Fold this sequence. Notes:
Elements: E1 5-8, H1 14-25, E2 29-34, H2 37-47, E3 53-57, H3 63-71, E4 82-85, H4 101-129, E5 134-138, H5 151-171, E6 177-183, H6 190-194, H7 199-206, H8 214-226, E7 235-238
Parallel strand pairs: 1-2, 1-4, 2-3, 4-5, 5-6, 6-7
Helix pairs in contact: 1-8, 3-4, 4-5
Bound molecules: NADPH dihydro-nicotinamide-adenine-dinucleotide phosphate and 2-hydroxyethylsulfonic acid.
Amino acid sequence: MVTNVVFITGATSGFGRATAYRFAEAGWSLVLTGRRRERLDEIAADLSARTSVHTATLDVRDAEAVRQVIDDLPATFAKVTALINNAGLALAPEPAQRAALDDWHTMIDTNITGLVNVTHALLPTLTQTGAGASIINVGSVAGHWPYPRSHVYGASKAFVEQFSYNLRCDLQGTGVRVADIAPGLAESEFTLVRNRGDQAAYDRLYEDTTPLQPADVAETIFWVTSLPAHVNVNRLEVMPTRQAWSPFAVERDT
Ligand code: NDP
Ligand code: 8X3
């Protein structure tokens, strides 16, 4: 029997970790990557009883390291069925005019260059897999809707949306599907990273509301990936019920 293989970036936390658990539940083999080795070991130890797990320490910004991890995949993990391009981050919670250039570069290097590195390295494998294969790019509502202090983060997610559509055009005829999954407010370490570890800012963001949980996003990713091979979800924006849009901000003299 052929086992499906899912390759997940940023599997050490939040959506990526929850997605690993969701695919494991369905019996898929897992390739789990991220920078934190101890987290990968912990998750692999927990999931190995349920399914086959291969882990690789990987910083997606390093194109050569990405290539190496993919070249070194053991034979039973080499025929990847689904790539979940999830690794990403927001930095610089201040307005653009006060943001550090280094933080902007880190977001571009991770959310854009990193995603492109992994996609480019896995495209030959995915096109070989053909019908039923999927590339799931984790975008954000921030890629579509502007809001204050989103500056480069939102713009990097706009790249994810357009890159997903453009990939679809080129991959037509190969059977490989591409989706941009764009979540809204969700509870994860993302908010600690964005606010430089400020627990009070984290608590304030989620206070008295009901954000998405990583398991909600994982379920969405799993559903999109498991649809029949002839169905492609182009973009799926998912918000918590208690999040919506605001009126335009109008500056006034008084
Ligand atoms: P987390 O902070 O919980 O997880 C982020 C993951 O990305 C971690 O596993 C981290 O692993 C990995 N990562 C970060 N930088 C790198 C890197 N350079 N190389 C490899 N892996 C990296 O956040 P979420 O799970 O919430 O975020 C996942 C994705 O979802 C991101 O792309 C984010 O932009 C997006 N998103 C998040 C939303 C939210 O509100 N939480 C909403 C919409 C989209 P490690 O540190 O071990 O490398
Ligand atoms: C981050 C989600 O709602 O902060 O991708 O823009 S939100």
